[in-house]
Amino acid sequence: MKQYFKTTLLIIATACTFxxxxxxxxxxxNPVIPPEPETPQKVAVKVSVSLPDGVDKVSDEKFTFTxxxxxxxxxxxxxxxxxxxxxxxxxxxxxxxxxxxGVEAKVRASQRSITVKDAVDISLEAFVNLATDDLIIQELYxxxxxxxxxxxxxxxxxxxxxxxxxxxxxxxxxxxxxTTFMSVQKFEYSPDIKESAVAVDAVYVVPGSGKDYPVExxxxxxxxxxxxxxxxxxxxxxxxxxADFEWxxxxxxxxxxxxxxxxxxxxxxxxxxxxxMFSMHNRGYKSYGIARIPQDYDMDRYLSEKAYSYTYxxxxxxGVFEIPGDCYMMPNEWVVDMVNLSVEQLFVxxxxxxxxxxxxxxxxxxxxxxxxxxxSVRRKYLATADDGRIILKDTNNSTADFNGNVIASEIESQxxxxxxxxxxxxxxxxDGLTPAK
Length: 437
Known about the structure:
The chain is mainly β. 10% of the residues lie in helices and 37% in strands.
């Protein structure tokens, strides 16, 4: 009887095993195939461009869409034949035109953070981009250097202005300014003056009666924070005692005083929000520009007519608060060059109208980037004129016009240190990348 049960159990177990095995084999022969994921369908995008006054027609239109997430770029030449995959895009528009006096010019426009989900219509207001017949910003050295003990040293900041034309330009009356708002933090400011002026926290002006400070074609004007030999305080720094100008502040706090080198001319200080000393933001949160102040404006008239009071809403866990602020404004029509700065990881917006600068540049990829020290942003080399004069790129787009995070030019020319270990620079360049001839 026991043998019978053993035999019966063995037969049942074998049958079950066979059944399971058969089912498994069947599944392997006929696997369940998941459905193919749906391929995103492209969306029709229409762009209409309002041309500026004086421009009747354009040629060589180019619509450039950059996917903010993937950084993939797509170019189109027809506003009515644009199709994009869903996503978030930045758009830039360029075209060529000829003005009534025969001058060739670029027509430009831009718009950021365009959500493409369904069919979308985009309206652009274009402007004429003429090469400036004034000084341009050649370099901004705002990150500073490091001491051999790894301490941050920022007194050696400087900026260079450049004459990109074929004739003498006088620097008298040129104002250097810093923006109030930051590219890494965006609020809705009211009233919104972005399309008419730049909100500024500091204004320093080149003195002179009109023809005191000529800048020859292809030459630079060096403006330093402190026009002194910084090597005396930091062996890893540079000598700026040869600067053409420095900005000097009479501090209201005896614990923080500025250094005035009597051998270097001071800029005229029209305004600064700081009660101590002005220094460029060493991470690149603020942006910088130069303006040509009208001759009938002096400091008193500027301060009486160009004050700007604003408010913005700050949302915090405790609630929404309306924050007031006061500064001054620099009219857009006075601005002759603008460089928007930021930090790659933190960039939110450009704080100026795209009519002044369609892009931005940087030294730091992350906030407090240790690799930013000893580096600057330098305007790109474009060509060499027949007379040997260097021509730099100037399209009012700092993304396209500048090499970011390159060794500062004064460090190169002085063979100075490029790191806290005191390693000396090994080559000189025109723009941080193009070897000097």
